[in-house]
Write a structure and sequence with these properties.
mainly alpha; 2 helices; 0% strand
Length: 111
Amino acid sequence: MTSGELLQGITLLSTLIIGIWTLLSKGKDTTYTRLESDRNRLDQRVAELERAREEDRARLDRVETELDDLKRVHGTVLDFLRDVVSGRFDLDWIKGRAADLLARYGGGGPS
């Protein structure tokens, strides 16, 4: 084997090793970059979903509060109707109580 052939073999081998090294390194970098991108995208999506969940929780709390208020009003109106039906109260008391309930619950006064 001549020195030229030896030099050619070394050059070929080093070129091959550098090419393989570059190919493998590039694949790792690309995979890592893709994984980082996916993780960042998922982190952002999770943050959006958590914000939406907090908004939904606040909305649900408002609806539950309103429902509780409506249940109280419903009970008060049912009590009033029971009082009217019982016949124990005269017409003036019934009118006064009805006007009070309308004023309290936003129904306005008598028209």
